[in-house]
Amino acid sequence: MNFFEDELMKEAISEVLRQQKASTTMLQRRFHIGYNRAHRLIQHMETMGIISGKNGYEARKIIMDEGDVIFKYLR
Q1: Where is coiled-coil annotated (predicted)?
Q2: Domains identified in the chain and CATH numbers
Q3: Three-state SS across 10-73?
Q4: In whole angstroms, how far apart are CA 50 and each of 8, 32, 62?
Q5: pLDDT digits (tens), the chain, 75 positions
Q6: Exposure of 28 in the CB half-sphere (CA atoms within 13 A)
Q7: What is the structure's pLDDT at 41?
Q8: 16 Cβ partners below 8 Å, 6+ apart?
Q9: Residue whose C-alpha is closest to residue 66's, from 22, 14, 9
């Protein structure tokens, strides 16, 4: 699976790491995109292990730091 086929993926990851929070709404507002696209970006980040899965109403946890993401996906 190519997680980076969406040209916003790298920017979305950077924003999540910078804000230290991940939500569909945050991505929608920051990038002026629709729910489906923002949700897909969040799902990809979860699959990649960058953020935790959804746990009810609790915020998703940021699992990887920037160095981990660069080492695993961006080199």
Answers
A1: none
A2: 3-73 (1.10.10.10)
A3: HHHHHHHHHHCCCCHHHHHHHHCCCHHHHHHHHHHHHHHCCECCCECCECCCECCCHHHHHHHH
A4: 16, 22, 6
A5: 788 999 999 999 999 999 999 999 999 999 999 999 999 999 999 999 999 999 888 889 999 999 999 999 887
A6: 10
A7: 98
A8: 22, 26, 27, 45, 50, 51, 62
A9: 14
What is the Cα–Cα distance from 75 to 65, expressed in whole angstroms?
Answer: 15
For residue 5, the surrounding DSSP H or E stretch is: none
Calpha distance 31→15 (Å, rounded): 10
Q: What pLDDT shows up at residue 3?
A: 87
Q: Are 23 and 59 in contact (CB under 8 A)?
A: yes
